[in-house]
Each structure stands twice: as C-alpha cells, then as structure tokens.
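Lecture notes, continued. The same structure-token format from the folding unit now serves as the input rather than the output. Read the line below as a description of shape only.
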C-alpha cells in the first residue's frame, strides 16, 4: 500500500534520551514507506544508539557536527542546505533540554541549527521521565513550540527507563509514523472529498466465450485514481476488464464486465460522492440476446442484433443532485463542435477531449493529448504527455473548480 510518505525527504533529528534506541525502527518504517531519510544526532544521542546503525539503515552518513572532523578536507555540513532538502523534520526523541533550546533559539549543535533553518513542517516526539514531563517549564515549552508551528506527537503512558511508571514514554515508532501520515493526509487539498471513477473497456457477451469489447487499457482511469488519492480524495474505481493494477488504501476497486454492471455499480455509489470521472470506454451497444451455449459455426454469415446500452455518464448528468462531473470524448472529425454538443448533452462540468488525429493519444498507448472544455466553453489545450502527467492536469482543473 502506498504511503503519503512515499517519495518524501525526511530529516530525523535524534537527541540524547534512552528512547533514541527506538529511532532505528523509525528509520526502518520511513524507508519501508518509501521515504528518503537523513539522520542528524546531537552529541549526547550518540551515547544511546550508534551512528553506524542509523547510517546503515538510512543509507546516508549520520551528521552530528558542523564539520566532518575525520574527513581530511574537513567539509562543512551545511545546516541551511539540510533544512531546505527536507520535506519534513522529525525530532524524536525530543528531550526536555533540546525542546528548551528550540524554544529559546539556543543553537549549540547541528540539529538545532538545522531546526532553526528548516522551512518544512517539524514534528517532535517528547520523551522524558514523568516528573520532568509534568514540570511547568516543560508544559510551557510544549505550548511555545506549538505556537511556533511545530507539531507535537504526544508521549504515552507506561513503564519508564527510570523504573517509574507514568507519562513521558516516547510514542512508539508505528504511532509516530501513523501520526505523521494522518497529519499529511488531513492537509491535502482533496481531503474529505470522494470520487467515483469509471475506467477500462466493457465486455458485452455474445455467448459464454465471446464478447464485443474494445482496446481500452484502463491506464488513464488508474492514473486519475492515483492522482486523486495523492491529493487526499477517497476513490471508488469501477473498472471494466483490465490488467492494470492499482493499489492504495484510499482506492476501493470494483471490477465489472458489462456496461449494465458498470451502470448498476455507479448508481449504487454516485449519490455518496462529490466528484464523478467517467473515463471508461463503454460499449454503446450489446448483443440483444446473448446465449448460454457456445454458438456453433453453421451458415456463411451470422447476424447479431445489438441493442443500445444505458449511457452511464448521461444518466448521472440527469440526476438532481449530480456530483461535479467529468466526461471524456474521443472524436475523429469536427472535434470541438462535437465536444461542445457532448458536454451539453451529458451535462458535464469538464469534458476531456481526445482527438484520434493526434499521434500518441487514445487507446493502448502510455501517452495522451487532451483539451479540457469547461461549462463556459473555455478550451485549454495541453501538450502530448505520459498519462500520469495528463492525470495531473485533469485533477488540477478539477481542484480549481471544486474547492
Ligand atoms: N459513456 C458512458 N456510458 C456509455 C457511453 C459513454 O458513461 N454508454 C461516457 C464515457 O465514459 C465518456 C463519455 O460518455 O466519458 C463519452 O463517450 P463517447 O463514446 O465519446 O460518446 P458517445 O456518447 O458514445 O457518443 P459517440 O460514440 O456517438 O461519439
């Protein structure tokens, strides 16, 4: 399952408390989530966990001092660059001493200098003995650090290294990662929004072994689903037969075969969502009388009567409380004229136009070239791009209009 931490650059600041040994697990979990990790330790932290362990796990040298003394060139560890590199900074464990210095701008080591230079969100996970935790100066520091915009990952209750029991235990590594993931998730622009996406082809049965279908791969719909969840939306992906794999904890995938099944699944869900994106290549017609047994070869010609499938997008466009609606159109001639008519007929808020005349657009290929038409008939033309990039353009246009 993809984590919101995937691809993020994370600085982990380790200070001198016994909970420092747990940072090995934090590094492991961050790497597993797909983050790049650099570790800064205070001099005191090196007594609790070895830099070698953390550098091996993080795959980067661990930094403590402003200069690398062992290096004959004595290179400078630039705290400003480190701060700029990071997408987020986690200080765990955060001792009472380090928090006090963070509050007062007392910069006597590389970790504190980097903290003061960092522009990214800073999370801190306090760890100390229960009486220190309860001390008014500690509470005051918590409040001040929060007022500066830092995010506290509260300590838990339990057995402490001193042998006492109470509040002050650093949150467990899994809790720290979960807290950060939830926090990032809750700040994404589409957090709280939900979406139905149709994708792929439909297969219309002729007999038990044959069908009428098309070459749609489902790649465009899958890319859209991932882009929507990357912005925090919850997605219900209603997918015709497709080999494309899409896995994300915010994506519920419902596999269907025929247009009628897709129609039924869409209408079970559509009233619960804010946005509908209809990227499926739905068969317009289906065999009128599919048979239960395989059709035997007999006459020289065979006629299959076809009947119209329900138009799923139009049926949603006609709903009284329709969601924000995005449709697709594939045209071969008079593209804009046909697209304007389609947008009006199907009542779309955005219509994504693919022209079959454009090389690298359409079915089976990894690229697409689109124009986006809004309700006021404004047309935005985009360059030919990979489908993942096209999905970004479409989702950006949606975001501008639904927020
Ligand atoms: N669509 C749908 N249900 C159908 C047919 C199409 O939901 N039975 C949706 C597609 O997912 C797409 C849009 O309608 O978002 C446009 O489909 P398209 O095939 O281009 O248009 P049609 O209405 O089928 O018109 P035509 O084939 O005549 O151009």
């Amino acid at each position: 399952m993809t984590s919101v931490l995937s691809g993020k650059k994370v600085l982990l600041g380790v200070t001198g408390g016994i909970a420092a040994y747990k940072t090995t697990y934090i590094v492991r979990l961050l790497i597993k989530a797909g983050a790049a990790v650099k570790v800064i330790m205070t001099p005191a932290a090196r007594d609790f966990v070895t830099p070698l362990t953390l550098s091996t796990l993080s795959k980067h040298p661990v930094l403590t001092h402003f200069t690398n003394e062992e290096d004959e060139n004595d290179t400078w560890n630039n705290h400003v660059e480190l701060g700029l590199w990071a997408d987020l900074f986690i200080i765990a464990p955060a001792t009472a001493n380090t928090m006090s210095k963070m509050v007062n701008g007392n910069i006597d080591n590389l970790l504190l200098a980097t903290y003061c230079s960092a522009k990214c969100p800073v999370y801190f996970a306090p760890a100390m003995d229960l009486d220190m935790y309860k001390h008014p100066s500690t509470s005051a520091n918590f409040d001040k650090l929060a007022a500066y915009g830092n995010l506290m990952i509260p300590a838990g209750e339990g057995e402490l290294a001193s042998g006492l029991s109470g509040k002050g235990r650093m949150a467990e590594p899994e809790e720290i990662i979960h807290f950060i993931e939830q926090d990032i998730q809750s700040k994404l622009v589409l957090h709280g929004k939900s979406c139905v996406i149709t994708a792929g082809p439909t297969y219309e049965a002729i007999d038990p072994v044959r069908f009428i279908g098309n070459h749609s791969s489902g790649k465009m719909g899958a890319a859209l689903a991932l882009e929507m969840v990357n912005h925090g939306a919850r997605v219900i992906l209603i997918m015709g037969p497709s080999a494309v794999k899409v896995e994300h904890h915010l994506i519920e995938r419902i596999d269907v075969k025929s247009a009628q099944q897709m129609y039924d699944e869409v209408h079970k869900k559509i009233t619960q969502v804010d946005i509908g994106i209809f990227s499926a290549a739905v068969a317009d017609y289906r065999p009128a009388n599919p048979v239960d047994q395989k059709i035997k070869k007999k006459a020289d010609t065979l006629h299959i009567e076809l009947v119209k499938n329900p138009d799923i997008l139009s049926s949603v466009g006609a709903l009284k409380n329709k969601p924000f609606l995005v449709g697709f159109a594939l045209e071969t001639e008079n593209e804009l004229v046909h697209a304007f008519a389609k947008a009006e007929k199907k009542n779309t808020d955005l219509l994504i136009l693919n022209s079959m005349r454009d090389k690298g657009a359409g079915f089976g290929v990894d690229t697409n070239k689109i124009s986006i038409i809004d309700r006021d008939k404004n047309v935005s033309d985009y360059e030919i791009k990979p489908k993942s990039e096209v999905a970004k353009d479409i989702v950006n246009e949606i975001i501008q209009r639904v927020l």
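Point for the exam: The chain has a mean pLDDT of 94.
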